[in-house]
Amino acid sequence: MTYAASIITKAGFSINPELQSLIVPVSMICGSVVPIDLVEKTGRKPLLIGAFSVSAVSLSCLASALLVQWSGATVPSWVLVVTIATAVFSYTAGVVPIVNIIILNDMFKFQVRGKLIGLIHMFIWNCTFLQVIFFELILSALGLYSVFFMSASVNVLGALLVFFLIPETKGKTTEEIEDILAGNKSATPETAFFFQKPIGR
Known about the structure:
- There is one protein chain.
- By secondary structure, the protein is mainly alpha-helical.
- It has one domain (4-195): Growth Hormone, Chain: A, CATH 1.20.1250.
- Helices cover 80% and strands 0% of the residues.
- It has 8 helices and no strands.
- The protein has helices spanning 4-10, 17-42, 44-70, 77-107, 110-142, 144-165, 174-181, 189-195.
- The radius of gyration is 20 Å and the shape is elongated.
């Protein structure tokens, strides 16, 4: 999302500047509407897996289009616009609201929720900072298409991690989620600290 406009320019596509500036915000606004209704109907896990999967496919298509262009062939300009818009849409529709807000609030009790979510968001923004730093370095070393093949791989990994490791939190209490994460066994002292220990005790 950070480099959407510059990516279009680097790829050599000529698009109206006004349209170029609207691609990301319009996609984000449209994507943010999706989880409002679907998250309680489908559950968190299917929507999150779907968001990672759609993002992986769109980024793979984007990387393939850039690779084809790099080899000397011509790629329609709309392909780049559609793939970027789809990736941003799916990320905003699933990953941002479900991971950053819903699942984190479902999993942690209110006594420790604020501090833990703050730490997690700090980690996320540190990763974003590193991404901004290393984007140009990876771009120069491996090419633009390689960056998006790597991004698509990260999304595939995200979908697999959600499928195998993340429990469905819809309609479950914190205690039920804790039991699932503990394999239906009694919570360990570490788990008890994160889920049960009130601040100040």
